[in-house]
Amino acid sequence: MSILRSTRRTLFLYRRLFGTQLKAILEYQTDFFIMIVSAVLTQLLGIVFLWVVYNRIPDINGWTFWEVVFMYAMIYLTEGFGSLFFEGTWRLGGLVNRGELDVMLLRPVSPILQVLTNGIGMNGLGNIVIGFIMIGQALTKVDLHWSFGKILIAILLILTAVAIRVSINLAANTSAFWIKNAGNAFPIMIHNLGEFAKYPITIFSMGIQLLVAVLVPFAFVSFFPAYYLFDKSTSPWIWLAPPVAAIYCGAVAYMLFRIGLRKYESAGN
Amino acid sequence: MNAWLRLPRSWRAYTGIATRSMQNTLAYRLSYVVNFASSFVLLIAMYALWNAIYAGRDELAGMSWTQMKTYLIISFISNSLLSYYSETRISGKILDGSVSADLLKPLDFQKARLAETLGSTVIEGGLTVIITFIVVLSASGILKPDFIHSLLFILSILASLLVKFGIVYIAGLLCFWSTGSLGIVWARMAVTSLFSGALVPLSFFPGWLEKLSLVLPFQGIVHTPASIYLEEVNVWGALGLLALQCVWACVLWLCGKLMWSWAVRQITIHGG
């Protein structure tokens, strides 16, 4: 019972913290608009790239246009969820450097929850809308045999993809506890590794495949879901891999945050 | 004798700014290294992707795999010459209001920002070029142009820097009308990447899009240096392209100047 209660309390707190941030953001309407437009532009750019390339060739290593669009969209969609609902991960570095994490440690609410809700990236809204449109298009354009089970699994795969993405973001941003540099680009570097997962990872060398499938498992956000949904795999159980990866990522991110927090000493005044 | 003392008085302030910006860049070495590594990740991804695209094909849109490889490197170099850091510095000044201090200085804001950008480019760009060329020289199969084209290429890379500065500066000034820079920077990156040829060589575009890209200033950032390096144009053609880059650099500079004088009239600085 207590688990249920604490989950409900966490969700309630999340809603309240998110709501406060949302009110702050909506004060600046120009920005709100610019962020959404820029996110949409960036996404369309990726699609233009694929479109231009696929105009010249029929497939890349056996993967057709819409299959790759699906992987693209999964990366953008999860990025969108990460920005819209958990933008705070990207601000952890600033919090640590300015010593503002102190405030959060004093409140009787989980610091992770407070960090996660420490901001909203309105660009996420653009990403999510375009991401869903692209995923929808891809799944209808490719000839697939849908069953009830497969639909459920598809929903599950999207949820775990978001969980993996947010966990990787959080884990990468905990580097701020160790790299005390205002322009810490390490999280961006990890984020950029997601680029590899926009394409079928089999085109890359073994080292890169291991990197995005094991060390920083972006492949479970896009590649493995695509592998399952487009029936590329001979094993029917491949869909189990992303949820397992999500649990693994969540645990690692949580642990890194705890270890980092223990190391945290405020910016002295 | 310090060589700078012989420069006209009005120049000295700007060389001073450039030097400080250089020192600033050197002070944040680690962030440069990580930045470089993170954009190198993108280069590797693109390389492997194009490698797969070219598998079993000799040429696409008139480019061979060897030319494509070379193109990717050139595009990487010209993109890393002006870092994200110098870009956000312009908008940062506007957003946090420190631009008000610049208004009091007897310096031209635009020239000072150019000096600052060039200063950090000397360090960052220089390092990038050196590292990239070491990588390139050790990797076989990258084309090397003849002497005259190499010379013209270097000139066009310098001109591309001015074109890019013009675009970045205008985008930075847009922050007078917004409260954040991230969206503007992203939008600028997307547009630049598409029309400059950084996303994909312009010859891959359908005819209308290619024509559109060629009348816009963005092509001067990647497309022009790359076509000179790949010797797609003869010497006269290259000189023509260089002249076009310079024209665009001037036009953008003037646009930036106009925009600045207009923006400054409606500035509101909070606090103080």
Shape of chain A: globular
Q: Number of DSSP helices of chain B?
A: 11
Estimated share of beta-strand residues of chain A: under 5%
Count of distinct structural domains of chain B = 1
Largest sheet of chain B: 2 strands, antiparallel
Strand-residue proportion of chain B: under 5%
Order of helices and strands of chain B: HHEEHHHHHHHHH
- Note the total helix count of chain A: 12
The count of β-strands of chain B is: 2
* Contiguous runs where pLDDT drops below 50 for at least 5 residues of chain A: none
Biggest chain-to-chain interface with counts: A-B, 39 and 41 residues
Number of strands of chain A: 0
The H/E string of chain A reads HHHHHHHHHHHH
Strand order of the largest sheet of chain B: 1-2
Number of discrete domains of chain A: 1
Secondary-structure content class of chain A: mainly alpha
Alpha-beta classification of chain B: mainly alpha
Termini separation of chain A (Å)? 43 Å
Average pLDDT level of chain A: 86
The percentage helix of chain A is 55-70%
Key structural traits:
heterodimer; A: 269 residues; mainly alpha; 68% helix; B: 272 residues; two-stranded antiparallel ribbon; 73% helix; 1% strand; globular
How would you portray this structure in words?
The complex is a heterodimer of chains A (about 270) and B (about 270). With about 270 residues, chain A is mainly α. Chain A has one domain (about 5-265). Chain A has helices spanning about 1-25, 30-55, 65-85, 90-95, 100-105, 110-115, 125-140, 150-175, 185-195, 205-215, 225-230, 240-265. Chain A is globular and about 55 Å long. The model of chain A has no long low-confidence stretch (mean pLDDT about 85). In chain B, β1 and β2 form a beta hairpin. Chain B starts with 8 loop residues before the first helix and ends in a 7-residue tail after the last helix. Classes of the chains: A mainly alpha (about 270), B mainly alpha (about 270). Chains A and B meet through α2 and α9 of A and α2 and α8 of B.
